[in-house]
Design brief:
With 614 residues, the protein is an alpha+beta fold. The chain has 5 domains: 110 residues, 2-Layer Sandwich (Beta-Lactamase), CATH 3.30.450; 103 residues, PAS domain (Beta-Lactamase), CATH 3.30.450; 96 residues, 2-Layer Sandwich (Beta-Lactamase), CATH 3.30.450; 79 residues; 152 residues, Heat Shock Protein 90. Helices cover 44% and strands 26% of the residues. The chain contains 19 helices and 22 strands. It has a 5-stranded antiparallel sheet, with helices on both faces. A 5-stranded antiparallel sheet has the order 7-6-10-9-8. It has a 5-stranded antiparallel sheet with strand order 12-11-15-14-13.
Length: 614
């Protein structure tokens, strides 16, 4: 009996303690409001969350309002007596926006009236913030994300995936992405379900537009607290463009490799560290490098012109040598065209590339071409010889006829004219034969270091008085900074003599009312010596320009043999150069001699020349 009384006393103490302390120890904001929305009771947690509450309205404390909330849940609970749970936003005691879940419970008295409401609020501001951040991350992450269960049913997708594939939540992944009726044979999600490990791989799917998409996918288990899981998250990145680009790069690389390997020109690349990364077969052949031999930067620099690689590395544009020399491993010097460029990507230097063209065959062809042109000209000369001889014979026959008829008739004046005609034509025969033999046999040019400007000066001085008599002004425009060059002084003098003499004659035959002049220029440009003879004389039409360098063609009548310009062209060719003509009838002509220094003949060894003369 005593123990039962003691038990009743203990229960009574517990009831008393609960009535007095339970509200304050509940870790939720608990309050009681009456039908006028006055707060009549609140615990410490409520006060810590929302601040002072006594003698204040609930909407003032919760929402900082001066009137009842338009969507007041409490008012509805007073009317229907139904408990409610809802998420709301209000302001905490510091005035900051707060999210909370509120339980509203009607308090019913013995008569069935509802004089009060009990409200319990749980602060979820931080939790909601985290949830919203996670949701934002899930939706906005720049890859496709979905969650599948053990049945391979899609239970959740992010925004990017929905935009690409539509709303497929609830579908089976194998059906949604591949249109299949059963799971894939190599399903990575199944492997993750089986071993609980992360798996990655490549997948090809079809989006809702019908386009094929290449994906790199990763599957990870969504672990629960006890290590068990029933969901797997799939993360996929669209690598379609990257795969296409990779395929294009592979194709481009294969083409470039083939072009480099099959190129007839030598191609060499050196990286920033000085290592040779490309040395194609043509380069190995040119420099006589064994297939397995490794060439160092120092060895390469010794093969190329001095400091060439350093020059290329310093240049902003490519470096180009039309004609230069390189040296192979045997020490042999080879004529080449050489180009180099700095390899730069996004302002970052990757090294240098060098292109080398072997021009030994080209030089041989040029030499053969020059000889062929000379022989062709000889052939043209022989073909036209009959015509020239015929003209000369006609002149001789005319002279003989005048002489013979004069002697027969005793007309000494007529006979004298015949003798003059014979004399004049015999001189023409001698001149014709001499020039023809000189052209057809060819005089071997004697090369010395000569000053190109002095040759031009001599020619101008020689014609100065003649031009003055004919009222033709000779104008000299001769550069003073041309270095001596290997050439035949006598031959080049003859070329300029022919051109200047022809220019003066063109001025003499011109109908130009303006003052006639002949301009003689000499200068050097890009390692090329250039002579120009420009006149404002009679000029030439199209037909004359076509014939001007052919055998026996002359515009001077009986005053010329037609071999002057042909000899000029031959001499210039023997010096490795070319001659150009620009002319317009009635306005004048320009003859231009172009002599690249790299193609000028070699200097004669004095000893070998003396031996030839002996």
């Amino acid at each position: 009996m005593a123990s039962e009384n003691r038990k009743d006393i203990e229960i009574g103490n517990i009831d008393s303690w609960i009535r007095e302390n339970l509200v304050d120890v509940i870790p939720m904001a608990v309050s009681v409001i009456d039908t006028d929305y006055n707060l009549v009771l609140a615990n410490r947690a409520f006060e810590q969350m929302f601040g002072a509450w006594k003698n204040r309205k609930c909407y003032t404390v919760y929402k900082d309002r001066s009137s009842i909330c338009p969507d007041c849940r409490g008012g509805a609970a007073f009317k229907d007596g139904v408990s409610r749970i809802n998420q709301e936003m209000g302001y905490n005691k510091n005035g900051r926006l707060t999210r909370y879940i509120k339980h509203t419970v009607p308090i019913v008295d013995n008569e069935g009236n509802i004089p009060y409401l009990l409200e319990m609020a749980t602060d979820i501001t931080e939790t909601e913030q985290i949830r919203r951040e996670h949701q934002l991350l899930f939706d906005r992450v720049p890859c496709y994300i979905l969650v599948v269960n053990r049945e391979f049913r899609i239970v959740r997708t992010n925004q990017k995936l929905r935009e690409m594939f539509g709303n497929i939540e609830g579908d089976f992944c194998y059906k949604a992405f591949r249109g299949m009726d059963s799971p894939c044979s190599n399903c990575l999600a199944k492997q993750t379900f089986d071993d609980g490990q992360m798996h990655s791989g490549h997948s090809v799917v079809q989006e809702k537009s019908g386009d094929t998409v290449q994906l790199h996918v990763t599957y990870v288990p969504l672990d629960l607290a006890d290590g068990k899981f029933d969901l797997v998250m799939e993360m996929a990145v669209d690598v379609t463009q990257m795969m296409d680009l990779e395929a294009q790069l592979k194709a481009t690389h294969a083409v470039m490799q083939s072009m480099i390997a099959k190129s007839i020109d030598s191609i060499i690349a050196v990286d920033e560290n000085g290592d040779i990364t490309i040395l194609n077969p043509a380069a190995k052949k040119l420099f006589k490098i064994d297939e397995n031999k490794k060439i160092t930067r120092e060895e390469l620099m010794a093969m190329l012109p001095e400091n060439f690689l350093d020059q290329v590395a310093r240049e902003s544009n490519h470096l180009y040598f039309p004609e230069t020399e390189v040296r192979n491993l045997d020490g042999e010097t080879l004529p080449v065209r050489l180009a180099g460029t700095k390899l730069v990507v996004d302002s970052r230097s990757l090294g240098v590339a060098v292109w080398i063209q072997d021009i030994r065959e080209l030089r041989q062809l040029e030499s053969e071409k020059l000889e062929a042109e000379r022989l062709a000209a000889v052939g043209q000369t022989v073909a036209g010889l009959a015509h020239g001889v015929k003209n000369l014979i006609t002149g001789l026959e005319g002279g003989m006829y005048m002489l013979s008829s004069g002697m027969q008739k005793g007309d000494f004046e007529r006979a004298g004219k015949g003798i003059e005609m014979l004399d004049r034509n015999i001189v023409r025969v001698a001149s014709f034969v001499t020039e023809f033999l000189s052209f057809s046999k060819g005089r071997k040019i004697r090369v010395r270091l000569n000053n190109p400007i002095e040759i031009a000066h001599e020619v101008v001085d020689m014609y100065f008085e003649k031009a003055k008599e004919l009222n033709v002004e000779l104008i000299k425009e001769l550069s003073s900074d041309i270095d001596p060059a290997p050439m035949d002084n006598e031959s080049m003098h003859e070329c300029l003599t022919n051109l200047v003499g022809n220019a003066i004659d063109a001025c003499r035959m011109s109908d130009n009312t303006e003052a006639c002049h002949v301009r003689i220029r000499a200068f050097e440009e890009n390692e090329t010596i250039i002579y120009e003879v420009v006149d404002n004389g009679c000029g030439m039409d199209y037909e004359v320009k076509k014939k001007v360098f052919t055998t026996f063609f002359t515009t001077k009548g009986l005053g010329g043999t037609g071999l002057g310009l042909l000899m000029t062209k031959k001499i210039i060719q023997e010096h490795g150069g070319t001659i150009e003509l620009e002319s317009e009838q009635g306005k004048g002509s320009t003859f231009r001699i172009i002599l690249p220094r790299s193609r000028l003949p070699q200097l004669i060894d004095p000893e070998s020349e003396e031996a030839q003369q002996i």
